[in-house]
Every structure is written in C-alpha cells, then in structure tokens.
Amino acid sequence: MHPKHENQPFQAYLIGGGIGSLAAAAFMVRDGGVPGRCITILEAASVMGGSLDGAGHPDHGYSLRGGRMLTTDNYECTWGLFRSIPSLEHAGQTVFDETVAFNALHQANAMARLIDCRRAKVPVHAMGFSLQDRLELLQLSRADEAELGARCITDCLSPSFFETEFWFLWSTTFAFQPWHSAVEFRRYLHRFLLEFSRIETLAGVKRTVYNQYDSLVLPLQRWLEAQGVRLVADCTVTDIDHHDREGVFTVTGLHCQHAGRCERILVQPDDLVFLQNGSMTDASSLGSMTAAPAKRTKADSVSWTLWERLARDRPAFGNPAAFNQCIAQSYWESFTVTLTDPRFFDAMQRFTGNEAGTGGLVTFKDSNWLMSIVLAHQPHFPDQPAGVQVFWGYALFPDQIGNFVAKPMADCNGEEILRELCGHLRFDLETVASGHCIPCRMPYLTSMFMPRLPGDRPLPVPPGSKNFAFISQFVEVPEDVVFTVEYSVRAAQMAVYQLLEIDLPIPPVTRHDQSLHAQFDALVKSLQ
After folding, report:
1. Whole-structure pTM over 0.85, yes or no?
2. CA atoms of 91 and 151, how far apart (whole Å)
3. Does 219 sit behind a cis peptide bond, omega within 30 degrees of 0 on the bond before it?
4. How far is CA 230 from the centre of its chain?
5. What is the pLDDT of residues 258-296, one digit of tens each?
6. Are strands 371-374 and 114-115 parallel, antiparallel or unpaired?
7. Residue ranges with strand state E in 345-473
8. SS3 of 401, please?
9. Are 63 and 380 in contact, with CB atoms under 8 Å apart?
10. Torsion region of 140: left, alpha or beta (phi above 0 gives left; psi -120 to 50 gives alpha)
C-alpha cells in the first residue's frame, strides 16, 4: 500500500485501457499492495488492449491492426510483469513460461526475408554497406542526443545508405522511415545491437502463442478482474479538472461520457490519475474486400485532446504538436487476410522454405508500397477453426502507386491489395480466391518516431505533479525505444513506483556489452 495511505484507502483512475494502463494497475496490486477494488480503468472503446488488438470471425474475416516485435534479450519490465500473470490455457504456467515454451518449438529462421522484383531471394548475409555508410553509421551511433536534437535520419546518413540491404531489413522490422528521428534510430541501434548479427533471419524475434491481444492483453485483463479491478468500457474521459497552487499540479475531477450520460468523477487530493497521452492507433479505420479504409484526419482524433489541453502553457507536460501535426509522415496501412483454402500457405511454404510461424517478415524490396507479409503459426486466434488460416501484412508507402494495381494502396480495397500481393509473388489469384482481406489505415502509427526536441515528451511523472502521471509511447524513458510493448510497460512501472513511493528496483535497460568501447567493437564487427 502507498505509505501515505496505509490507514486510508485511496482511488486510482487510469484513463485509457491500453497495455500501459493494464500494466500500471498490475504493478499497483502486485508491488504496491493496492486493493484491486480501489483501481478503475476507463476505456473509450468497447474492449481493453488499446493498440494490441485482435478480433473477427472466420466467416467475416479476422483483423489485426499490427503486432509488436518481442525478444527475450530485452523487454525486462514486460517479462518481469508476465512472469506473474497466469496462462489462460496451461495450468501452472505463467504467460512468460508458455511464451518461452512456444518459441522453443517454433524458432524463427527466415529464409526469404527480402524478395526482389524478379521474385528472387536477396542474399542478406552481407548488409551492403560502403565504407562511407559504415563511418556515418558509427558516427551516428556515437552522437549525443542533445547534439542530434530534431534531426532526421536523412540528415545523418547519405542517400546510398537507404539502398542497402541493412536498411530494408532494419526499416521493415522496426517500421522506420528515412524522415524519422535520428535520436530514435540511434536508440534502436544501441538497444537492439544483438539484432545486427541475426537481422536477416529474425532469430531473435519471439512470438506469442496467439495474436498479442489473446496472448498478452486477455490474460492480464482476467488477472486484474480477479483482483477486483474495475474495467469500464465505452467510457470517454472528455476533460480533467485540476488546479495549480504554488507550483503543484493536482487533478480534482474527471468528466466522462458513459452509457449515454455525462458524469463527473470527484478526484480527492490523495487519489491518483494516470493518463495514456496520445495514441498510435487513434483515428484508425477498416476497409473491406470492396471498400478502402476511410481517410480519417486530426478532426477524427480523440486521444490527443486531453494531452493538448494539459500541455498548454505547461512545458513540463510536453509538446503533442511534435507528433501529431503531419499525418503524411506518420501513417501507414496494414491488412489481415483470412483464408479457407490452404493453397496460398502451401505455395508460400514451397517458395520461402519456411513453415508458417518460422519465417518472420517477407519484404518485397522493390515494391512501390514497400509491402511485407508474415505468416504466423496457426491458429492465430483461439477460436480459429481447423481449415482456416490467417496472415498479416503492411506497407510503409501506402501513398505510392502499386506495381500491379494502378492506384495508391490507401485507395485500394482488400481485393486490390491481394491482387498486388499475388503480382509480387507471381502467384495465381486462385491461391487467394477464398481470401477475405481487411485493410486498416492508421494515421498516427509511427508518430512516436517523428523528429523531436528534448522536452517534447514529458516524464512519466512531470515535475510538480502531486497525483498525476502520463503512461504511453509519448513519455520520456531514457535509453529505451518507443514502438515496443516494453516502452509502455516500463513507463507504467516508473509512474506507479514514483507516485506510490515503492522502494523496489526497476530493471535497467539492458546493455549487452561491458562498456561503450566494447559495444562499438561489436558494431564494427557486424558491419564488416
């Protein structure tokens, strides 16, 4: 229990039901001794999980907006949490246990990571660097973040670098664009140094048994419910009452729209409020086999509003405009395909040499859309019947005209996306004749990668905050990397431990070398 409240229960309110809020609630119960009945999660959508979603039906098609890469060499806070969460399917095992066991049986070893316009597998044991590329990459990795500031990756690396095999591998694995933040790219180089030696096979990538909603979100949600945590869906927090007195910021109330009614939650001075500020999947839209996704804009966004209001005239609360002002630079499109005929999966296995679930991303490097697909181990959903197969794909350049469909991906329906995919693979359309392809447009998916200045992201608990914290991909966690489940979980742990004054260590961000010198030696060897 919070040491200040050992004899007086307090309430904790978490705005947003993504993995950050779910993790924060778990840390409060597990490490803070807070009774679950004192914790309420308020989520605008009908289900919890935020960006870690997964839904659908075999008859109408499944849909996934995306999937986050996991490793067991990093993700210290994530696995530290899921070592405490029971598996829903394997008695006596935790989510971590079942994930490790699953990956021992289904190890990644991609044999067709890059495919060129001739449908040939591109050799990727050499990264394609010139001497200049090596020197510039090393210089960037050694640069100070303050010196880099809001510079883009293109400000630090020559045009030839973006034609290397390494760039195609790295950018599609982690979803980097050339115009993204050089600081974030540098952090990835350090955080995922081990991936240099295995980026071509994705041997370091770990997968969950099912999609990440069913494998991570649902077990965590069930555990929280068993502890008495209140999970309130279809509840939108529209405003936050607060006061500033003598430099101390205190939340005093929450305005909500729930079940068609406007409500106000009174927040006492000793209560706690956690806000998931911003969202990478805000204003997402789904298409169908006959319709492209709607092109939603900032006018359709809701998750940024509270942060924008709070940050106005409060520099310590960050700068949302650094991340949400240019959809053209932060959006991309994914698609989920449901099949009832095995011909496509059989043809992919013959072509790649990988069984589904062992190959990772297959990227078409000469695709105008820069399209990639991944065939997960089946079933990918717990209710997925035998004979039904699901795969997922995405494109980094959905604004470009296709190679086989004469229109931008953003204007394509599911049938046209399948036609473009079969064109790159030189597969007959009959292999996907049973396919139900659901495209998804996400205006802000890589917004956390946008160039930024120090201070644009607030600390999880801003200076002067008495009872309020941020939890999201848009807070500042030194040395760690955004666009990962780990970032949200680590931010949640930091915020909870600080506000509850929990005297327990937070796992450090892993560095796999004994010194900076050794780290760069390893980097140099990987570039040779």
Report:
1. yes
2. 50
3. no
4. 25
5. 988 999 999 999 999 999 999 999 999 999 999 999 999
6. unpaired
7. 361-364, 371-374, 389-395, 436-442, 468-470
8. strand
9. no
10. alpha
